[in-house]
Amino acid sequence: MNESVTSAIEKCRSAKSRGEKVAVLTAYDYPMARLLDECGIDILLVGDSLGMVVLGYPDTTEVTMDDMVHHCKAVARGAKQSLIVCDLPYGSYKNEATALENARRLVDAGAHAVKLEGGVSGEAQIAAIVSFGIPVMGHIGMLPQSVKLEGGYKIKGRNPHEIEALLADAKAVERAGAFSVVVELVAHEVAKEITAAISIPTIGIGSGPDCGGQVLVIHDLVGLFPWFKPKFVTCKAHVSKEIRAAVEVYIRETKKGL
To answer: Rounded distance, CA 55 to CA 60, Å?
Structure first.
């Protein structure tokens, strides 16, 4: 890692001790990455959510390593200041050797760090990647890559067994050397408890305001994917409406020969 990346990773890792929140948004292409970077976003996440909002898949499980490499390269061309974290897609980190090999591919594509799903189940993979010098962001709670296995997107932390498992996952991610951890669709009070239990920042998504930061899919934030909106998202803009309005004007003017 170069000095600027090392500094950005340590800034994120220590944000909690400074009482600062970490702002994260997804980006999948050059223009969006450049816009968000110019806005000063802390972290750009090249998420495998691109499978749904860019590639039209029903979930993230069909996203490939080649897809992630392609989009990571585009984001890296657009971002000059933000930390770039790229998802390891479904099936790309089944064991330590495979996880490390694919993490290196993403770093070669321009990622500064990688993200993988799983707490206790991913501890060995996280440790292997970190030991090679590649920073890792964890991901616990609802795991999108397991949506078919679990039969949908369900809130976690509803009973004592789930709470105990979530705390174990968070501590495993921290123990393995991750610099932060996404906490997705976890009951708010449980997410607050997890945040207090570990030293690294928790990056919440649908897990309440008490996490150490927040991450959203940019399409959800600005209303660029009108066919589905998560219940926990409040759109800050309605870009799809503006696009439709502009295109309708263009069609009318073209038909009239203007």
So the answer is: 10
Catalytic residue from among 184, 189, 193, 253? 184
Q: How many CB atoms lie within 10 A of CB 43?
A: 26
First to last CA, the chain: 54
- The tokens of 168 are what? 């174990």
What is this structure's pTM?
Answer: 0.96
Paired tokens of 138: 């964890």
Nearest residue to 108 (alpha-carbon basis) of 136, 81, 68, 139: 68
Only one residue has tokens 């951890």, namely 181
Q: Catalytic site residue 150? A: no
The answer for residues whose C-beta is within 8 angstroms of residue 188's C-beta and 6 or more apart is 207, 208, 209, 210
Task: Give the tens place of pLDDT for each residue, 100-127.
Answer: 999 999 999 999 999 999 999 999 999 9
